[in-house]
Amino acid sequence: MIAMTPVGSKGWLVEQLKKNGIYRHPVERKKLETYKAVILYGLYEKYVKKGRIAQ
């Protein structure tokens, strides 16, 4: 049985960002896991939903 993270949870957001090549916060350069879900959702909206790539 495969354990899946619930859609929209912090774990899911981290997973989606990493799938799109974002492993650290684009400005502060800290690991994604250290941020709260609301910050991660903002990054998800900005970079994944809109198709941007964080450099």
UniProtKB/TrEMBL annotation:
<dbReference type="InterPro" id="IPR022580">
    <property type="entry name" value="DUF2639"/>
</dbReference>
<dbReference type="Pfam" id="PF11121">
    <property type="entry name" value="DUF2639"/>
</dbReference>
<protein>
    <recommendedName>
        <fullName>DUF2639 domain-containing protein</fullName>
    </recommendedName>
</protein>
